[in-house]
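Practice problem: predict the structure.
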Amino acid sequence: MNTDITALEKPQYPVVDRNPPFTKVVGNFSVLDYLRFSTITGVSVTVGYLSGIKPGIKGPSMVTGGLIGLMGGFMYAYQNSAGRLMGFFPNEGEVAASHQKRGGSIN
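Answer:
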């Protein structure tokens, strides 16, 4: 099975890892990724609660909305983190960290 990831576009930013593993992507989550993750989850819980008021199923509706938001928020944060590592999103912090880890200079 070919697991090579190819894109229609070339990365616009320096590539830190062309095919990052799951643990590296999750470990690369920024504060903004966690903020977006928790915001999407919180909004989904609220929408689930509000949509369950009229039929009288607030609890189950809130839990379902929260689970959907949790999964959606995680996928959004994962996409942003992986995009930075693969060079598709601005990644100055990741590039600086990879150069510092290798002991090289940025310029």
